[in-house]
Structure formats: structure tokens, C-alpha cells
Write a structure and sequence with these properties.
It is a single chain. By secondary structure, this protein is mostly helical. It has a domain at about 45-135. The chain contains 4 helices and 2 strands; from the N terminus they run αβααβα. It has helices at about 10-15, 50-80, 85-115, 125-135, and strands at about 35, 125. Strands 1-2 form a two-stranded parallel ribbon. Helix 1 packs across helix 3 (about 85-115). The two termini are about 20 Å apart.
């Protein structure tokens, strides 16, 4: 028989907090509080380069979370219509679920990296603004692309 579900759901749910307003999922939402002009840090702060890396990780997490949500809906629809007497269909379904779970594991690894490098760390708001502005500049490198669909 087959199993269906997410691996390490708690981590993924923590990342993909359900909110109605897309702005609420913005980058600042997951990092520590920014330090305003004139305030002093209580410990080490993220550099602009580190902030840029954190912003890139957040973009990857957001994109993959959206893809996984879409994949989860597709799997649910497939599960609903699955002919359990058709062994080939069951094997194909199980392969899709396994690939989905692998994708969740990869997302969880990215979340772990973000949490260790970025979450809860102090930064100067001016550095964040500069890193955000720099991230909006046209780049020559290819953008993050979604893994091939199954």
C-alpha cells in the first residue's frame, strides 16, 4: 500500500505561513528586526552581502513553497481519482508522492540553511534597503527555475 504526506511538515508549514496578503510574506517577515539609524546592535549584524544571500534564499523558499502547494493539490486530485486496482497507476502515483517528498526535503534543507544563516539575526535597515535595491537590478545570471515537473 502507499503512503501520502509531507516529510517534516512542521518546518514547511513554518515557512509557508498562510496569509491573505502577499505583502505580509515579504522578506522582513522572517528575519530579525532591523536596526534603525542611530541605534546600536546588541551583537553581530548581517553584512550587505549576507543580507543579499538571505534575500536570495527567501526567494527560493517562497518559489519552492508555491510549487509544492501546487504539486500537493495535483497529488490530492490524483489520489481522489486513483484506481487502486490498476497497479501501474498506483506505482506512478507512489512515484509522484516520493518525488514530492524529496522536494519537501530539499525545501527543508534550504529552510534550515536560512534559519541558521539569517533568521533572528540583526541587520541595519539601510543595509537591507541597499541589498533589496541591488537585488532588483537586472542580472545576467539565469533566474531560479522550477525543477522539471514530473
Amino acid at each position: 500500500m502507499w503512503k501520502w504526506g509531507r516529510l517534516a511538515l512542521a518546518t514547511t508549514v513554518m515557512v509557508a505561513a498562510s496569509v491573505d496578503d502577499a505583502d505580509a510574506r515579504r522578506r522582513r517577515h522572517r528575519m530579525g528586526a532591523g536596526i534603525s539609524h542611530g541605534q546600536h546592535a546588541t551583537g553581530p549584524t548581517l553584512t550587505r552581502t549576507e543580507l543579499a544571500d538571505c534575500l536570495a534564499l527567501q526567494d527560493v523558499i517562497n518559489d519552492r513553497t508555491e510549487w509544492l502547494d501546487a504539486d500537493e493539490a495535483k497529488i490530492a486530485a490524483l489520489r481522489h481519482g486513483l484506481d487502486r486496482t490498476d497497479s501501474r497507476a498506483v506505482i506512478d502515483f507512489n512515484n509522484k508522492v516520493s518525488a514530492y517528498n524529496d522536494d519537501v526535503s530539499r525545501l527543508d534543507s534550504t529552510v534550515d540553511l536560512f534559519n541558521s544563516a539569517c533568521a533572528g539575526k540583526e541587520y541595519f535597515e539601510s543595509d537591507l534597503a541597499a541589498a533589496e535595491a541591488e537585488s532588483k537590478l537586472p542580472v545576467q545570471a539565469p533566474q531560479n527555475t522550477r525543477p522539471a515537473t514530473r
